[in-house]
Amino acid sequence: MEEASSIKEGIEKAISLAKKRKFAQTVDMAINFRNVDFSKVDNRLKLEVILPKGIGKPRKIAIIAKDELATKAKGLVDRIISPEELEEFGKDKKAAKKLAKEYDIFLAEPSLMPLVGRYLGQVLGPRGKMPKPVPPNIPNLEPMINRLRNTVYVATKGKYLPVIHVPIGTEEMNLDDLVENAMAILHAVLDKLPQRETNVKNVVFKLTMGPSVVVNNING
User: pTM to 2 decimals?
Assistant: First the structure.
């Protein structure tokens, strides 16, 4: 596909232009839109996309749970937060911000969601990290956890910002794998746009500390 070819060239150029660092830099993708009125709620994007080739680095998951669900989560997630700890975070905003920064994904027992909103909502909400409720009586958490580790959230921010930003992997990943991840995101977004490719102004790729590379011809 010519569409994939231009995306591949953009990613390859972004990687080549970035200076090597002492850590594996994230490859970020931005899509700039045109002729879409994001002041209309129906036009705003809020998607979950599973990256077919994974995110390229471990993603840390925390779950807010008690009793049976907490037991099921042992060994599957990176941290289990009890209702008592949740209340402590509500009293210590500095610790709450550190928690929000340390973990990529938050899950919660549905019955605890009101407490999450009360004690962590002001910290997690603006960062787009409000917990996903775990389905009641879920027999096995592992498939859900594995899926979430490779899931990225694609969302427009605010009413008048015609852009989305999303990671597609790391510079250490195979180029074709990064392209496949980028195409998965692009196609998921196009399916939600009223005029598909016509509503895309351009696509931009960059590494964490690298320059931006603009791709204008996603139509080939």
Answer: 0.80
- 143/73 same-domain check: yes
Task: Give, for 118, the enclosing helix (H) or strand (E).
Answer: helix 113-119
SS3 at position 28: strand
Per-residue H/E/C for 51-106: CCCCCCCCCCEEEECCHHHHHHHCCCCCEEECHHHHHHHHHCHHHHHHHHHHCCEE
Backbone torsions φ then ψ of 209, nearest 5 degrees:
-120, 30
Residue 144 token pair: 């859900």
Tokens of 94: 């500095």
Nearest to 215 by CA among 33, 11, 2, 1: 11
Q: What is the spatial distance between Cα 25 and Cα 23, in angstroms, rounded to a whole number?
A: 6
Helix and strand counts by DSSP (H, E) for the chain:
8, 10
- Domain span at 196: 2-55+150-215
Joined together, the tokens standing for residue 55 give: 């995110």
Beta bridge partners of 202: 32
Among candidate residues 55, 58, 129, the one with its CA nearest the CA of residue 96 = 129
Among the candidates 148, 170, 186, a domain finishes at 148
pLDDT digits (tens, 9 = 90+) for 90-142: 899 999 999 999 999 999 999 999 999 999 999 999 888 899 999 888 889 99
Q: In the numeric block, which tokens belong to residue 43?
A: 């036009």
